[in-house]
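Hey everyone, long-time lurker, first post.

I ran two proteins through the pipeline my lab uses and got sequence/structure pairs for each. Pasting them in order. The first:
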Amino acid sequence: MNSEVEIESEQAAPANAAEVVLACRELRKHYRQGNRDLEVLCGVELAVRKGEKLSIVGASGSGKSTLLNLLGGLDTPSSGSVHVAGKNLAELDANQRGWLRNSSLGFVYQFHHLLNEFSALENVAMPLLIGKRPVAEARAEATEMLEAVGLGERLSHKPSQLSGGERQRVAIARALVTRPACVLMDEPTGNLDRATGREIHKLMDRLNRDLGISFVIVTHDPDLAAALDRTLHLIDGKLESDWHQGDHV
């Protein structure tokens, strides 16, 4: 298998863009509802390039979170394929998929999902420890990432001692600490006030620029969507493009 997955579709980035870090082909997902199948995703095609920031928007119940879960390997498609760092998730066993998620993907949700009994430092170090990194190294890298998101003075604070914006910053630091190829975000500013949301936007932009990490963000926030490289609309189970930069180049 090639190390990169090339997908020729209207969702592909311009030809001169960098390599693909996350992709899906003919992705379908249906659920059994009573006596009929409910098809949520109907042959979705997507290619996310290194360092790209894109948003996925759509009506409530259109399948945005379902798509994000499939891209992250947290759910299994009814058919089609998902490729992370050039590897087809369907061809990996459970341990291999877990390792690939830990090393190549980060996740941020509307709710921070921090472990309340652990400090900010311990929460952020967790993915590195799961990946078998030495404790001292994991703590050093977690400290560096928390400093990068402006929480260098909150290392020992537990989630209950942090504001909503600070908790979300910890969640972002946790998602980025492994230096993944791509971070998947589901309504990352949905529970924040407008001012805090803008700060999170700026933070994501800076980290994308400094670290070259790609972002795929499901959002209802038009300001956030407009600030990214491109927006994809999930309509009737398929993605439709709305380019922000380099249209039709």
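...and the second, right after it:
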Amino acid sequence: MHPSAKIIFFFLLMFLSAKIFAQQIVPLAAKEKISIRGLSAVNNKVVWISGSKGTVAKSIDAGKTWQWMTVKGFEKTDFRDIEAFSAKVAIIMAISEPAYILKTIDGGKNWKQVYTDSTKGVFLDAMEFWNDDSGIALGDPIDGKFCIIRTFNGGDSWQKIPDDKLPTADSGEACFASSGTNIRKLDRQQACFVSGGLKSRLFIRDKKIDLPILQGMQSTGANSVAVRDSKKLKDGMHIIVVGGDFGNDTSQQKNSCITSNGGNTWSYPQTPPHGYRSCVEYITKDKLITCGTSGVDVSTDGGNNWTLISKESYHVCRKSKKGDIVYLAGSGGKIAKLVW
């Protein structure tokens, strides 16, 4: 290599390293003995979280201050997912026996039960909305079939999908209610979801696609899926899945896989995330963030190489729907944001 080329290469490496190390997680708030897994950012300023002990919190100033609240009558409930539409309107999901979905239209002062399921074994995992009206929620299998419910009026009411239309689960296959992101929209009508446990698959309508991710134990499998292009379902759709083994959360073994053709073929990252990951989120076309109990990674090349930027534990990371801020939340009531 010519000496001048070596110098240019050296400074290029220094520049890239500086960009990587400039990325950091900035703490915003914390609340002891609370675990947060639900997070929804309406825009850069308005963000909601939900978690254990009936906890919901909201910020309307980009995380500078927070209004913490406990939903009356649900003080022992774990709200694993939340979908926010404004500073006034939000929907929260309680996971199991009975499973509840509640909605507020006054900023959290009052909550209305809009769905209740007391079926033995019911366990809701996540919600996803296409727009302000149309949404879907996913639950673990009951009698061998995944639970799917829909709303078409902004969450004011929900209906179960008929049993003969529900996808069938294999023995030992279920979902993880770890971050509210194991179900995602694909286009204006379709959604996909991922499963884990003894079997780990990607479900797209009638298609069941085996995932090349760690599986075979109750603690293994896919936890989160992110879709790069959700506006139009096509062969070139990029989908990334993360998970691993939450019982061995520093293992990098088969904890992520990527497809660029809608799931027909899969590849592993050259440099995988540095441990089990419960959530993955696209920030831009090529930039992603993923988090889990053993840390936070970012990628600038579409998920092919991941850089560990924090060893702090976080359950969920979400980009604001109408903005560019990425928020994170986790155990100990920790709330933070990513600074690029």
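Reply from user beta_strand_b:
Welcome! Quick read of the second one: The two ends are 33 Å apart (CA to CA). The chain has one helix and 29 strands.
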